[in-house]
Amino acid sequence: MKNQFIFILLLFCSCSNMIDLNGNIYDYDTERPLKNVVVTINKVETLTDSLGYFNVKIKREQPIKIVFIKKGYSTKEISRKPDSLGEFSKRSLKYNKFYMYNKESDFYKN
After folding, report:
1. Cα–Cα distance between 27 and 81 in angstroms, integer?
2. 107: enclosing H helix or E strand
3. Threshold 0.90, pTM exceeds
4. I need a labelling partner for 78 at 20 to 30 A (CA). Which of 17, 24, 65, 69 fits?
5. Rounded (10°) CA dihedral 16, 82, 65, 67
6. Distance CA 62, CA 79 (A)
7. Is the pLDDT of residue 35 over 80?
């Protein structure tokens, strides 16, 4: 009976409709991590920590729009759609590196 309970529990956990999207945000010119960047993914907001790290749970089959905002930096927007099976590669959603241009950069856009 105990084994059946564990199996059912594992089955429910593996069928989750949510997956993690995470990464770090860096200054393009200095390659230093950016703290307190507002990361918005499909209207869910979080802030990066002192290492520029963020983590947000997203729906497995839903297109995503990611927006990075920090004062003194160009706003960055990224859009992604799931593949033909309606899923994202788990590898492509983990440990991403994103770069933002500060106002001193040659690539800065208002």
Report:
1. 26
2. none
3. no
4. 17
5. 90
6. 11
7. yes
pLDDT digits (tens, 9 = 90+) for 40-95: 998 889 999 999 999 998 877 788 899 999 999 999 998 888 776 666 665 566 67
H/E run at residue 12: helix 2-14
pLDDT given for residue 107 in this prediction = 73
Residues 87 and 60 sit within 8 Å (Cβ to Cβ): yes
Structure tokens at 90: 């788990």
| The two structure tokens encoding residue 108 | 């800065």
Give every CB contact of residue 61 below 8 A, 6+ residues apart in sequence: 17, 82, 86, 87
Whether residue 100 contacts residue 34, with contact meaning beta carbons closer than 8 Å, is answered with yes
Highest mean pLDDT among 15-24, 32-41, 61-70, 93-102: 32-41
Beta bridge partners of 34: none
Please give the Cα distance from 39 to 26 (Å, whole number): 13
For residue 38, give both structure tokens. Answer: 């507002």
